[in-house]
Amino acid sequence: MAYLRGLLSAVAALLIAILGPPILLVLRNANTSKATGMVAFLVFSPLSGVLAIVFFALFFAASRLNSKSLRILLFWTPVTFVSTLGFGFLALFAYAWLHSPRG
Question: Residue 20 domain-assigned?
Fold first, then answer.
């Protein structure tokens, strides 16, 4: 079970680090007329690595709490939500890519 919690912590931390900053930047600049084509490069910024490490440490520490209610509130709920949302986005993009016309 410890391996599963560690794996879920890593997946959720990576999804937050990869999808978090670009989504926040797009939402912040949604009402301006500037182009946001550089948003894709935020994935490769050092901020993403730092965010992944910090969120992994937080989720892994929360997964080892003794209180069951705190563990559910601080680990299972955010990790399940982020993983579901992240895999949903990835599935949506894969579906759109597979069904887009080529040529």
Answer: yes
